[in-house]
Amino acid sequence: MFINRISPAMKKNITCLFLPVAAAILLSGCNKEIKSVEQWTTFEIELTAGNDFPNPYSDVDVWALFVSSKGDTLVRPAFWDGGKSWKIRFAPPDTGSLWQWTTFSVPEDKGLSKKRGSLRSVKYQGSNPLLRNGLLKMSPGKRNVVHHNGKPFLVTGDTPWSIPFRATTDQVLIYAADRMKKGFNAALLMSVQPDMYAEGPDLRDTPQGFARGFDDLHEGHLNKLRVDYFQYLDSLMQILVGHGIVPVYQPVFHGFGWKGKTVLGPTADPDEYARYCKYLVARYGSMPAFWLVSGDANGLDPCVKPGGEMIEKWDCYHQPTGIHYNPADDYMPSWANGDSSRCFHHNRSHQDEPWLDFQWSQTGHDGKHLYHKVERMYDNKPVKANLNGEPTYEGMGNGKAGLGWWQGEEAWNQLMHGGTMGVVYGAACLWQWKVTPDEQGWDAWTDAPMSWREALEQEGSKYVGLVSKAFDGFDFADMERRWDLTEDNKPLLAKEGVFYISYLNNGGSVKIRNVPAGMPFIWFNPETGETAAGGITTTEASFSAPDNKPWVLIIGERVFK
């Protein structure tokens, strides 16, 4: 049952206002034609305010209560869309229900309050896997992400951070088609350009140029929202979702920004930051999404908790919310200026908070295979899903680090060491969306001589994308790190009795205890995506790879389409 997490006071207010209205609608039989809306697709309500407000973005709160004929209750916030226009986006989570909705506003406005209507939810008829399987949520054991129909979702993410403020629709179409074909299903994004002191023309696809999401961000505030920016962002996000790629929304980045300048995130006003988080939930929360309330920092900035709590309050679908950390916690880097709190957080800030679903580490960009962070995060309690959100980007260090198969080896080993939520890839010059190879303004360690279009084709992306294809169709939800089930402590993830997967970097053999006899197994080539002959498990449960090259052993039945 879907019940939005709302405050008792709000619930009382809504109940008092809504129930008489709902009763009247139901008794009247609703003579108007009722619109049919496919499950998990977005139904949009447009409202026109009766009054003028000095700053509609910050001065008015608007929301709608949705009640189904099955007894489910959902609340969706509205967002200001320019002039006197507010919009509410709702995705029905079921089929065969009559949904009644009523709107509310504070302050009360005749055009925004007490508007009502209805819709009927019907079966989704399309082919988009994100909509066919439903929005995302955490698995029962909190180790992974699943769709609402229970199908597991292994994050296979890319880091085109600057798409929202640098890319055009034509460019994102090229990007999304490439990543979908390779197997990527998530994209990490700075929702606005975060550097307060960045300079450049207010233009996309131009050297040094970037679109502005807030006119006062450079002054350290988030009050003057630019509607045209977010209307354009709508089109970019629809392209990603249309290609089966889930946007990962980082509101205002906290660490190293697009230009390496001072970023707003750590110093943002907590109330302004939380309000913006609510706006993102209102505008994009009816589509597949992840919420990343802190990026490339220690997770302890004052606005992180209010942002997470705001998302928890208003995201009625409870899509995953988490933190992505800086690459510290084992040493004192120069940028920390001797402040140990910036480094020694061990990727577990807010671990106890109910709004926090996942923790993403970062191992830095030095071209080193480091697996201890995800191991340590895996053991943190209470359990939160985890992965390495940024290994070395391909082509870092003037195009010399993390090249080719290095990326495949890194992804598989990070996964096996406990990053059970999935894997993430990055490419130098793609993350900042360099218009031309010689575009100026980047620190030397990110200054590979290529454009975003050239970076898109780097070899390593192929290997990381294939990781998702190895898991397709299997029931791996809440798989655990179970090296203890093998002889010689070989890499193994397992959902005992259901699914087992082992990565052998140099081939060889692995013997696994307690595997039920009669389960099918295959060998997956992580360099090509091809499979080699497998068989059926026996009581011996000993498996030898086809040769001494990298291989992945997969044991289990494909149960999902």
Q: What can you tell me about this protein's structure?
A:
With 561 residues, this protein is α/β, with parallel strands linked by helices. The chain folds into three domains: 8-122, Sandwich (Immunoglobulin-like), CATH 2.60.40; 131-471, TIM Barrel, CATH 3.20.20.80; 482-556. It contains 13 helices and 26 strands. The strands form five sheets. The protein has an eight-stranded parallel beta sheet. The chain has a seven-stranded mixed beta sheet with strand order 1-7-6-3-4-5-2. Strands 19-20-21-26-23-24 form a six-stranded antiparallel beta sheet. Strand 8 and strand 9 form a beta hairpin.
Quick recap of the structure?
This protein is of the alpha/beta class and 561 residues long. Helix content is 23%, strand content 23%.
Structural topology:
Elements lengths: L7 H21 L6 E4 L4 E6 L7 H4 L1 E8 L4 E8 L4 E6 L7 E9 L9 E7 L6 H5 L2 E3 L6 E3 L4 E2 L1 E4 L4 H4 L2 H14 L3 E5 L36 H16 L3 E5 L19 H15 L5 E8 L6 H11 L6 E5 L32 E4 L10 H8 L5 E4 L7 H4 L5 H12 L5 E3 L27 H4 L4 H12 L8 E2 L11 E3 L3 E6 L4 E3 L8 E5 L6 E6 L5 E3 L6 E6 L5
Parallel strand pairs: 1-7, 11-12, 11-18, 12-13, 13-14, 14-15, 15-16, 16-17
Antiparallel strand pairs: 2-5, 3-4, 3-6, 4-5, 6-7, 8-9, 9-10, 19-20, 20-21, 21-26, 22-25, 23-24, 23-26
Helix pairs in contact: 5-6, 7-8, 11-13
